[in-house]
Amino acid sequence: MLYNCRDYWQEILDEKDETATSHLFQWLMTRVSDYRLGQECIQEFLLEEFLEEECLLQKWEYFRQELEKHGRQKSVGGSCSWDYTYEKLVQSCFILMEQLDIDELEQLVFYQEHWHLSFIRKLAIQKALDREDWERAIAILKESKALDRPYPGLVDRYSRELIQIYQGQEWPDEIREELVEHIFDYGCRDLEMIRALQPYVTESEWQGYLEQLVEDGRFSTIRLHLLLLLNRPQEVLEGILNSWYHLEGLDAFEKELKERIPEALRDAYYSVLLKEMALASSRSRYRQLVSYLKKISTYTKGEAFSHQLARTWREQFPRRKAMLEELQAVEE
């Protein structure tokens, strides 16, 4: 409902009536702290509009005082809502500092006071990049990785920015060091990042790193992909068959496994489909499983396996009318 009010407020501004605009501004300023009216919505509108210097100064005074008051409340005990409100106030103050073109030294002091907030460091990083001050940008990014370690998404972004800087400066040693740290110390499970390491290490080092990752429990979710990189397809197949997602796993790795162990993969499909049909109980599932007959026929001696599988299904489940109809439809 409050966001509908924004349209009404905007209509008042569009009229360009100074008196009405002034009354609206003062009304919003008296209600910006009222949670019942949707504080965040009013704050956003105030920051986006009313850019005259007098209004900016009044807003700056308000948000600065709110930030100081909120900071004093921290001693009472922090919370998620406290953190969120605090960060929004800091963001508002920073926007106003930029709009008022406040002295750079005062902005720097503000940065330092709120350095623990990731978005403040993000702004500092961007400023360093804009000035091509690589040393400063790298220092802040490394510091941010340590400060924001509990937040993998942020850490991943910092690492990628570091690598981008190193690539731009053609610093291969720094790229390798960052990738190794990000993968092994921070547990990055992004295959793209892991593969990016290969050009910067020797073949024996690459194999050794992959072996370490395969044995590291933090990388269990990508273990099968790592085994493929190690060219151990049989272990990949065994891992799929020992999981609960047999058929989906075979499909996911079919392209790679078919190139390396086609007959073993064909046999695995045959075995899994026999088990899955025994558990199936709906026409849609019958149709899905029967469709694999065509897939199996593309393998070496696949047509014989496909015919045998269909024959076995008919013999095992002669009373499944829907299944028999789906088989007939495929064979026609």
Task: Briefly summarize what is shown.
The chain is an all-alpha fold. The chain has 21 helices and no strands.
How many strand units? Answer: 0
Helix content: over 70%
Briefly note the structural class of the backbone.
mainly alpha
Q: Please, how many helices?
A: 21
Please describe the biggest sheet, giving its number of strands, its sense, and whether it closes into a barrel. none
Poorly predicted runs of 5 or more residues:
75-80
Principal-axes shape call: elongated
Overall average pLDDT: 89
Structure commentary:
The relative contact order is 0.03. With 332 residues, the chain is an all-alpha fold. Helix content is 76%, strand content 0%. Helix 16 (254-260) crosses helix 17. The protein contains 21 helices and no strands. The longest helix has 21 residues, at 80-100. It is elongated.
What brief labels describe this structure?
332 residues; mainly alpha; 76% helix
Give me the secondary-structure topology.
Layout: H1 2-14, H2 18-31, H3 39-48, H4 53-72, H5 80-100, H6 104-113, H7 118-130, H8 134-147, H9 152-169, H10 172-185, H11 191-196, H12 203-215, H13 223-229, H14 233-241, H15 246-252, H16 254-260, H17 262-279, H18 283-290, H19 292-296, H20 302-316, H21 321-331
Helix pairs in contact: 4-5, 7-8, 8-9, 9-10, 12-13, 13-14, 16-17, 17-20, 18-21
